[in-house]
Amino acid sequence: MERKNHGYKKALPSLFLLAALILFALSCGCTQQAAQSTDQKMFKEVTASQPDATHIVITYQGGTNMEKIIELETTITDSSGKSQTKSAGSRLATTPIPIKGTNTISGDFSGKDHVVVIAHMIDGSRTTVLDTTI
Predict the structure, then answer these.
(1) Rg of the chain's alpha carbons, rounded to an integer?
(2) pLDDT of residue 69
């Protein structure tokens, strides 16, 4: 009685090749570093400092794309959960905010305070330029 080979032996090298290609494709992205957000690179010049327990100062030094910002909107949530928002510039403006400026916000900042700064651009777009706890 003759045994039929149903092509398994011929298909086996093709399956190995297919499996190797799939593993190669999956591993290609695993060795790359995660790309840093363009926003973080472009706006690293926006910082927050706390000179005392009643003031937080937002400083913007200028830099890449700063000439497109018409408003910096800062929201601070203090350790008790109370939030306040203050802006430098205006979304209705047609010219950018002054470079190398500061925006001082007063309040009870005796604990850890969450600071978020959003840049509003002249083209209507917006991006978070600072998100930190001080």
Answers:
(1) 27
(2) 87
Backbone dihedral region for residue 81 (phi beyond 0: left; psi -120 to 50: alpha; all else: beta): left
For residue 84, the one-letter residue type is Q
Domain residue ranges in the chain = 38-133
Q: How far is CA 88 from CA 5, 30, 54, 129, in A?
A: 79, 42, 19, 14
Q: CA nearest 134: which of 82, 79, 96, 63?
A: 79
Q: pLDDT at position 25, please?
A: 54
Q: What is the pLDDT of residue 34?
A: 34
CATH superfamily of 38-133: Immunoglobulins (2.60.40.10)
Residue numbers of the chain with a pLDDT score lower than 70: 1-44, 65
